[in-house]
Amino acid sequence: MRIRSALAVASLTTALSASVLPATAHGAERAASSDATFSNVVVNGGKDIVLGLTTRKTVTITWTVRDPDGVAASWAYLWHGPNTDDADGILPLYPPAGACTVSAADPTTSACKVSFGVDAARDFDHNGLAGAWKVLGAAQDTHDDWTETDVTGTAQFKRNATVTVNASPEPVRKGRTITVNGKLTRANWDTGTYTGYQSQAVRLQFRKKGSSVYTTLRSVTSGAGGKLKATTKAGSDGYFRFVFTGTATTGPSTAAGDFVDVR
Known about the structure:
This protein is mostly beta strands. It folds into two domains: 6-158, Immunoglobulin-like (Sandwich), CATH 2.60.40; 161-260, Immunoglobulin-like (Sandwich), CATH 2.60.40.730. The protein is 5% helix and 50% strand. It has two helices and 18 strands. A five-stranded mixed beta sheet has the order 2-9-8-4-5, with no helix packed on it. Strand 16 and strand 17 form a beta hairpin. The longest helix has 10 residues, at 6-15. The chain is elongated and about 80 Å long.
Protein backbone atom coordinates (compact mmCIF):
# COMPACT_ATOMS: atom_id res chain seq x y z
CA MET A 1 0.00 0.00 0.00
CA ARG A 2 1.41 3.39 -0.92
CA ILE A 3 0.71 6.87 -2.19
CA ARG A 4 0.51 7.07 -6.00
CA SER A 5 3.15 5.55 -8.25
CA ALA A 6 4.63 7.54 -11.14
CA LEU A 7 2.84 5.23 -13.56
CA ALA A 8 -0.54 5.72 -11.93
CA VAL A 9 -0.02 9.47 -11.89
CA ALA A 10 0.63 9.49 -15.63
CA SER A 11 -2.47 7.45 -16.45
CA LEU A 12 -4.95 8.70 -13.88
CA THR A 13 -4.10 12.39 -13.91
CA THR A 14 -5.14 12.73 -17.55
CA ALA A 15 -8.35 10.80 -17.01
CA LEU A 16 -9.62 12.40 -13.83
CA SER A 17 -10.45 15.97 -12.97
CA ALA A 18 -8.34 18.04 -10.62
CA SER A 19 -11.23 18.29 -8.21
CA VAL A 20 -11.29 14.52 -7.70
CA LEU A 21 -7.61 13.64 -7.47
CA PRO A 22 -5.66 14.08 -4.24
CA ALA A 23 -3.01 16.81 -4.24
CA THR A 24 -0.12 14.38 -4.68
CA ALA A 25 -1.37 13.46 -8.18
CA HIS A 26 -0.48 16.98 -9.33
CA GLY A 27 2.97 16.95 -7.83
CA ALA A 28 1.97 19.11 -4.87
CA GLU A 29 1.65 18.23 -1.22
CA ARG A 30 1.37 14.48 -0.59
CA ALA A 31 -2.03 13.27 0.45
CA ALA A 32 -2.27 11.26 3.65
CA SER A 33 -2.58 7.51 3.33
CA SER A 34 -5.98 6.11 4.17
CA ASP A 35 -6.84 2.66 5.50
CA ALA A 36 -8.74 1.36 2.50
CA THR A 37 -8.59 -2.37 1.77
CA PHE A 38 -9.62 -4.24 -1.37
CA SER A 39 -11.24 -7.66 -1.68
CA ASN A 40 -13.36 -9.82 -4.00
CA VAL A 41 -11.44 -8.58 -7.05
CA VAL A 42 -12.67 -10.39 -10.17
CA VAL A 43 -11.66 -9.73 -13.78
CA ASN A 44 -13.76 -10.88 -16.75
CA GLY A 45 -15.96 -13.00 -14.51
CA GLY A 46 -12.93 -15.05 -13.49
CA LYS A 47 -12.38 -16.29 -17.06
CA ASP A 48 -9.19 -16.06 -19.15
CA ILE A 49 -9.15 -13.30 -21.76
CA VAL A 50 -8.19 -14.92 -25.06
CA LEU A 51 -7.22 -12.62 -27.92
CA GLY A 52 -6.44 -13.21 -31.57
CA LEU A 53 -4.87 -10.60 -33.82
CA THR A 54 -7.86 -8.25 -34.11
CA THR A 55 -10.08 -9.38 -31.24
CA ARG A 56 -12.08 -6.68 -29.48
CA LYS A 57 -13.62 -7.39 -26.11
CA THR A 58 -15.21 -5.58 -23.20
CA VAL A 59 -13.54 -6.49 -19.93
CA THR A 60 -15.11 -5.83 -16.54
CA ILE A 61 -13.39 -5.57 -13.16
CA THR A 62 -15.47 -5.85 -9.99
CA TRP A 63 -14.17 -5.32 -6.48
CA THR A 64 -15.09 -4.45 -2.91
CA VAL A 65 -13.37 -1.59 -1.11
CA ARG A 66 -13.62 -0.77 2.58
CA ASP A 67 -12.43 2.31 4.46
CA PRO A 68 -13.25 3.23 8.07
CA ASP A 69 -13.93 6.81 6.91
CA GLY A 70 -16.10 5.74 4.00
CA VAL A 71 -15.23 5.57 0.31
CA ALA A 72 -15.61 8.70 -1.83
CA ALA A 73 -14.27 7.13 -5.05
CA SER A 74 -12.34 4.07 -6.21
CA TRP A 75 -10.41 2.93 -9.28
CA ALA A 76 -8.98 -0.32 -10.62
CA TYR A 77 -6.90 -1.11 -13.68
CA LEU A 78 -4.74 -3.89 -15.12
CA TRP A 79 -0.98 -3.67 -15.49
CA HIS A 80 1.79 -5.94 -16.79
CA GLY A 81 5.49 -5.87 -16.03
CA PRO A 82 7.98 -6.14 -13.16
CA ASN A 83 6.34 -3.27 -11.24
CA THR A 84 3.95 -0.40 -11.86
CA ASP A 85 6.72 2.09 -12.57
CA ASP A 86 8.19 -0.13 -15.31
CA ALA A 87 4.97 -1.60 -16.67
CA ASP A 88 4.88 -2.41 -20.38
CA GLY A 89 1.08 -2.56 -20.45
CA ILE A 90 -1.81 -0.72 -18.77
CA LEU A 91 -5.52 -1.39 -19.38
CA PRO A 92 -7.34 0.85 -19.69
CA LEU A 93 -4.66 3.44 -20.42
CA TYR A 94 -6.74 6.21 -18.79
CA PRO A 95 -8.69 4.46 -16.02
CA PRO A 96 -12.11 5.92 -15.22
CA ALA A 97 -13.49 5.88 -11.70
CA GLY A 98 -15.47 2.78 -10.89
CA ALA A 99 -19.20 2.86 -10.40
CA CYS A 100 -19.49 2.20 -6.67
CA THR A 101 -22.50 1.36 -4.49
CA VAL A 102 -22.34 1.81 -0.74
CA SER A 103 -23.45 -1.21 1.25
CA ALA A 104 -26.76 -0.68 3.04
CA ALA A 105 -25.50 -2.82 5.90
CA ASP A 106 -22.07 -1.19 6.21
CA PRO A 107 -21.51 2.43 5.09
CA THR A 108 -17.73 1.91 5.18
CA THR A 109 -17.91 -0.65 2.37
CA SER A 110 -18.63 -0.17 -1.32
CA ALA A 111 -19.02 -2.59 -4.24
CA CYS A 112 -17.40 -1.20 -7.39
CA LYS A 113 -17.36 -2.01 -11.08
CA VAL A 114 -15.62 -0.71 -14.19
CA SER A 115 -15.80 -1.89 -17.82
CA PHE A 116 -13.47 -1.00 -20.67
CA GLY A 117 -12.63 -2.08 -24.20
CA VAL A 118 -9.63 -4.21 -25.13
CA ASP A 119 -8.40 -4.17 -28.74
CA ALA A 120 -5.77 -6.80 -29.53
CA ALA A 121 -4.44 -4.89 -32.56
CA ARG A 122 -4.01 -1.73 -30.49
CA ASP A 123 -3.13 -3.02 -27.02
CA PHE A 124 -1.09 -6.20 -27.66
CA ASP A 125 1.89 -5.61 -29.89
CA HIS A 126 4.25 -8.31 -28.60
CA ASN A 127 3.98 -11.87 -27.32
CA GLY A 128 5.53 -11.00 -23.98
CA LEU A 129 2.20 -9.50 -22.91
CA ALA A 130 0.61 -12.97 -22.76
CA GLY A 131 0.18 -14.43 -19.29
CA ALA A 132 -0.65 -12.96 -15.90
CA TRP A 133 -1.57 -9.29 -15.46
CA LYS A 134 -2.11 -7.68 -12.07
CA VAL A 135 -4.93 -5.49 -10.80
CA LEU A 136 -4.08 -2.18 -9.11
CA GLY A 137 -6.71 -0.86 -6.73
CA ALA A 138 -6.97 2.76 -5.60
CA ALA A 139 -9.43 4.57 -3.37
CA GLN A 140 -10.11 8.00 -1.94
CA ASP A 141 -11.91 8.26 1.39
CA THR A 142 -14.32 10.94 2.53
CA HIS A 143 -11.43 12.92 4.10
CA ASP A 144 -9.60 13.02 0.74
CA ASP A 145 -6.94 10.57 1.91
CA TRP A 146 -5.70 8.15 -0.72
CA THR A 147 -4.78 4.46 -0.83
CA GLU A 148 -3.16 2.61 -3.70
CA THR A 149 -2.43 -1.13 -3.64
CA ASP A 150 -0.40 -2.43 -6.57
CA VAL A 151 -1.66 -6.01 -6.51
CA THR A 152 -5.25 -6.68 -5.46
CA GLY A 153 -5.90 -9.47 -7.97
CA THR A 154 -4.78 -11.02 -11.25
CA ALA A 155 -6.06 -11.69 -14.76
CA GLN A 156 -4.87 -14.01 -17.52
CA PHE A 157 -4.45 -12.77 -21.10
CA LYS A 158 -3.82 -15.54 -23.64
CA ARG A 159 -3.03 -15.85 -27.33
CA ASN A 160 -5.78 -17.44 -29.39
CA ALA A 161 -5.05 -20.88 -30.85
CA THR A 162 -6.55 -22.76 -33.80
CA VAL A 163 -6.34 -26.46 -34.62
CA THR A 164 -7.39 -28.21 -37.84
CA VAL A 165 -8.06 -31.87 -38.69
CA ASN A 166 -8.29 -34.00 -41.81
CA ALA A 167 -8.82 -37.77 -41.65
CA SER A 168 -8.21 -39.92 -44.74
CA PRO A 169 -8.83 -41.94 -46.82
CA GLU A 170 -12.56 -41.36 -47.16
CA PRO A 171 -14.28 -43.79 -47.45
CA VAL A 172 -12.12 -46.54 -45.95
CA ARG A 173 -12.50 -50.27 -45.48
CA LYS A 174 -12.88 -51.59 -41.96
CA GLY A 175 -9.53 -52.58 -40.44
CA ARG A 176 -7.51 -50.35 -42.74
CA THR A 177 -5.29 -47.52 -41.50
CA ILE A 178 -6.72 -44.02 -41.15
CA THR A 179 -4.24 -41.14 -41.13
CA VAL A 180 -5.31 -38.02 -39.27
CA ASN A 181 -3.43 -34.82 -40.10
CA GLY A 182 -3.81 -31.35 -38.69
CA LYS A 183 -2.04 -28.20 -37.61
CA LEU A 184 -1.86 -26.23 -34.39
CA THR A 185 -1.28 -22.49 -34.73
CA ARG A 186 -1.62 -19.48 -32.44
CA ALA A 187 -1.78 -15.73 -32.72
CA ASN A 188 1.68 -14.18 -32.97
CA TRP A 189 1.40 -10.61 -31.72
CA ASP A 190 5.01 -9.94 -32.76
CA THR A 191 4.33 -10.55 -36.45
CA GLY A 192 0.58 -10.00 -36.72
CA THR A 193 0.05 -13.53 -38.12
CA TYR A 194 -0.85 -17.02 -36.93
CA THR A 195 2.23 -19.25 -36.65
CA GLY A 196 2.79 -22.92 -35.89
CA TYR A 197 2.91 -23.98 -32.24
CA GLN A 198 5.20 -26.95 -31.88
CA SER A 199 6.12 -29.33 -29.04
CA GLN A 200 2.59 -29.20 -27.63
CA ALA A 201 0.45 -32.13 -26.48
CA VAL A 202 -2.75 -32.48 -28.53
CA ARG A 203 -5.41 -35.16 -28.08
CA LEU A 204 -6.81 -37.19 -30.95
CA GLN A 205 -10.45 -37.97 -30.23
CA PHE A 206 -13.16 -40.03 -31.94
CA ARG A 207 -16.96 -39.89 -31.80
CA LYS A 208 -18.92 -42.82 -33.21
CA LYS A 209 -21.75 -41.95 -35.58
CA GLY A 210 -24.97 -41.61 -33.58
CA SER A 211 -23.13 -40.80 -30.34
CA SER A 212 -22.63 -37.40 -28.72
CA VAL A 213 -19.51 -38.39 -26.78
CA TYR A 214 -15.90 -38.07 -27.94
CA THR A 215 -13.29 -40.52 -26.62
CA THR A 216 -9.58 -39.78 -26.52
CA LEU A 217 -7.61 -42.27 -28.61
CA ARG A 218 -4.12 -40.96 -27.95
CA SER A 219 -2.01 -37.88 -27.44
CA VAL A 220 0.33 -36.58 -30.12
CA THR A 221 2.95 -33.82 -30.03
CA SER A 222 2.87 -31.02 -32.55
CA GLY A 223 5.92 -30.95 -34.79
CA ALA A 224 7.66 -28.28 -36.84
CA GLY A 225 5.21 -25.57 -37.88
CA GLY A 226 2.63 -27.05 -35.52
CA LYS A 227 1.99 -30.09 -37.73
CA LEU A 228 -0.06 -32.94 -36.28
CA LYS A 229 -0.19 -36.54 -37.48
CA ALA A 230 -1.64 -39.72 -36.02
CA THR A 231 -2.79 -43.08 -37.34
CA THR A 232 -5.52 -45.44 -36.18
CA LYS A 233 -7.47 -48.45 -37.45
CA ALA A 234 -10.87 -47.96 -39.08
CA GLY A 235 -13.55 -49.53 -36.92
CA SER A 236 -16.84 -47.73 -37.51
CA ASP A 237 -18.30 -44.60 -39.06
CA GLY A 238 -17.54 -41.53 -37.01
CA TYR A 239 -15.80 -38.23 -36.46
CA PHE A 240 -12.17 -37.49 -35.68
CA ARG A 241 -10.91 -34.29 -34.10
CA PHE A 242 -7.85 -32.79 -32.41
CA VAL A 243 -8.18 -31.05 -29.03
CA PHE A 244 -5.62 -28.63 -27.58
CA THR A 245 -6.24 -27.78 -23.92
CA GLY A 246 -4.08 -24.64 -23.86
CA THR A 247 -1.12 -23.39 -21.84
CA ALA A 248 -0.36 -20.54 -19.44
CA THR A 249 -0.03 -18.14 -22.39
CA THR A 250 -2.27 -19.72 -25.05
CA GLY A 251 -5.98 -20.48 -25.08
CA PRO A 252 -7.55 -23.89 -25.86
CA SER A 253 -8.85 -24.95 -29.25
CA THR A 254 -10.94 -27.83 -30.58
CA ALA A 255 -11.20 -28.77 -34.25
CA ALA A 256 -14.57 -29.50 -35.81
CA GLY A 257 -15.02 -33.25 -36.25
CA ASP A 258 -14.05 -34.75 -39.63
CA PHE A 259 -16.35 -37.62 -40.66
CA VAL A 260 -14.99 -40.87 -42.05
CA ASP A 261 -17.23 -43.43 -43.75
CA VAL A 262 -16.09 -46.97 -42.88
CA ARG A 263 -17.25 -49.74 -45.24
